[in-house]
Design goal:
CATH class of the largest domain: Mainly Alpha
Order of helices and strands: HHHHHHHHHHHHHHHHEHE
Strand order of the largest sheet: 1-2
Number of helices: 17
Radius of gyration: 23 Å
CATH architecture of the largest domain: Up-down Bundle
Largest sheet: 2 strands, antiparallel
Strand content: under 5%
CATH topology of the largest domain: Growth Hormone, Chain: A
Distance between the termini: 57 Å
CATH superfamily of the largest domain: MFS general substrate transporter like domains
Oligomer: single chain
Length: about 325
């Protein structure tokens, strides 16, 4: 639509198109990490979690290169540059029907174990997926009492209190780190190279971590609502940086980045003290790691059984009770 705005002599088309693209980008920035997190085996969850943000950064770099005045960033090339955004959207639309449903979603939320098993076999490339299905069944039992959580009910859940605080602080820290606070109109090539290296490092390091952790900290029933909260905090913080930074730069100059450094330090301390290591852990194991901090107790069956024992007793009911 944006590509034909010049032919139609209508700037309104650009406004409407940008609005639609913004909605799509906001949805994708939450849905894609959540989908990948649910599909991924636990040993590859972190590695696959950085892929969306890495490709977002590559896409931004490509757009900036195409926007150079000598390429498409001129009076004759800008309609083509805007129109090119339709190509990846068309490719995505054509390929989406071939994507498998999330096995975890199909089993836990839809109760369709047959489809979940088929999707899991397709994703893993082998037939023996009983161990992963057992872990999903256990998670299903553990959250039956909670049901599907909305954003409001998520905010009042005592068993998810520190998980919620953690994703809010990590998303705020990610955006308030100053990575998007740049208004330089000229700089030496060495500085440009350093900025590019910094942005790439941010894209494969701190940037995707909040999305990965949001997937891992919440079980299936609470995950969509958690991503809504995380996404809202993320983009509000992004908007805040864009709104406030010009005034900070005008008043403090380069010293304004000291504020961002302090925010990064506070976020680092919080992560070090509160957020546990989740590598190679199942979602239910991570939930148990937070249980003590939330002052709740996850009981499997008639007593507190370790996960390896409980997997053999999936018929037992699961309940969450306060200390």
């Amino acid at each position: 639509m944006m590509g034909v705005s010049e032919i139609a002599k209508s700037y309104e088309i650009i406004i409407v198109s940008r609005f639609i693209v913004g909605i799509c980008a906001g949805l994708s920035s939450n849905v894609v990490p959540m989908y990948l997190g649910e599909l991924s085996p636990k040993n590859l969850r972190g590695a696959l979690g950085i892929v969306p943000q890495l490709f977002i950064t590559i896409g931004i770099l490509c757009a900036q290169v195409l926007g150079i005045r000598n390429i498409l960033g001129n009076s004759t090339g800008w309609p083509l540059m805007l129109g090119l955004t339709g190509i990846p959207a068309l490719i995505e639309l054509m390929l989406l029907p071939f994507f498998p449903e999330s096995p975890r979603y199909m089993l836990i939320q839809r109760g369709d174990e047959k489809t979940a098993k088929k999707a899991l076999q397709r994703l893993r490339g082998w037939d023996d997926v009983d161990a992963e299905l057992s872990e999903m069944r256990l998670e299903n039992l553990s959250e039956r009492a909670e049901g599907h959580l909305s954003v409001l009910s998520l905010l009042s859940q005592r068993s998810l209190r520190w998980q919620l605080v953690s994703i809010i602080i990590m998303n705020m820290g990610q955006q308030l780190s100053g990575v998007n606070a740049e208004t330089v109109t000229w700089m030496p090539y060495t500085s440009i190279a350093c900025v590019i290296i910094y942005v790439i490092g941010h894209a494969i390091g701190p940037s995707p971590i909040p999305y990965v952790v949001t997937t891992e900290m919440f079980r299936q029933s609470a995950r969509p609502a958690a991503f809504m909260v995380a996404g809202s905090v993320h983009w509000l913080s992004n908007f805040t940086v864009g709104l406030v930074f010009p005034f900070l730069e005008r008043g403090l100059g380069s010293y304004s980045f000291i504020i961002f450094s302090f925010i990064c330090l506070v976020t680092l301390v919080y992560i070090w003290l509160v957020v546990p290591e989740t590598k190679n852990k199942t979602f239910l194991e991570i939930c148990q790691m937070f249980a003590k901090r939330n002052k709740v107790e996850i009981k499997l069956g008639d007593g507190d059984l370790p996960l390896n024992e409980s997997k053999e007793s999936l018929e037992d009911a699961v309940r969450v009770t306060a200390f």
